Amino acid sequence: MRGIFITMEGPEGAGKTTITQMLGKALQQEGYQVLLTREPGGVPISEQIREVILNKDNTAMDSRTEALLYAAARRQHLVEVVMPELERGGIVLCDRFIDSSLAYQGHARGLDIEEVYNINKFAIGDMMPDATLFFDIDPEEGLRRIQSNGEREVNRLDLEALDFHKKVCEGYQFIINRWKERFIIVDAGRTIDEVFEQTKASLLDFLAKAGN
Ligand SMILES: Nc1ncnc2c1ncn2[C@@H]1O[C@H](COP(=O)(O)OP(=O)(O)OP(=O)(O)O)[C@@H](O)[C@H]1O
Ligand SMILES: Cc1cn([C@H]2C[C@H](O)[C@@H](COP(=O)(O)O)O2)c(=O)[nH]c1=O
Fold it and tell me: Whose CA is nearest to atom 2 of ligand 2?
């Protein structure tokens, strides 16, 4: 049986990485076979593409180039990591996937969500996530969190104006309306423990309904 593909989405600083790590451990303790990974990156070729996209010096990057690079990194990561693990029947928790491209490049950069969806269809075929946890937070609060985290390196996308990050959130709302059945909405403005407990309960419920 094919495994389960879960993605984590939301604006900067919403807590995706923190909660994904905690969920990975919790699901393993429940006896699930879980793989944690992230985009862009997760394998050497995609990590190299990540360096190019997020490098603060690459200010000349065109929006379509950016969208194509994310899609290329996605393809390589899917083929090398996600698809083999799903074929083994595992659960893949992936920090960001296609919805990030739709929200950031499609809506916030103004490329158009449908256009970006189409180039991503070429990259992913029918490998859409089975479920997506959306970490809902006010973009200003998310940016405050990453600014107060001294260990996190600031990247080219972080440096965009607040208006850009507001548009990212607006883009996510379009996407959630379009693929309602896939999304689990998480109120990410609460404490880490509260967010973790809600996401764990939602995920276990989803897995039980999926027959796992
Ligand atoms: N619920 C929370 N309350 C307060 N701080 C939090 C919460 N969740 C995460 N943080 C802190 O906010 C910062 C960003 O968290 P994290 O890296 O998990 O977010 P993210 O959504 O993965 O961000 P990005 O997409 O920008 O990488 C970290 O310093 C983390 O410890
Ligand atoms: C997958 C993907 C990501 N982005 C943006 C979102 C973030 O600003 C960075 C990734 O950094 P993180 O710390 O790992 O969250 O890239 C994007 O614009 N489009 C995408 O498809």
Answer: 100
- Which CATH number goes with the domain that contains 65? 3.40.50.300
CB of 100 within 6 A of ligand 2: the answer is yes
Calculate how far, in angstroms, residue 156's C-alpha sits from the geometric centre of ligand 2: 10
In the chain, how many domains are there?
Answer: 1
Q: Which of 77, 146, 157, 169 to mutate to test the pocket of ligand 2 (most atoms within 8 A of CB)?
A: 157
Contacts 24+ apart (CB under 8 A), 115-123: 116/67, 119/67, 119/68, 119/71, 120/71, 120/74, 122/71, 123/71, 123/72, 123/74, 123/75, 123/78
Domain around 138: 4-209
The ipTM of this complex is 0.98
pTM: 0.97
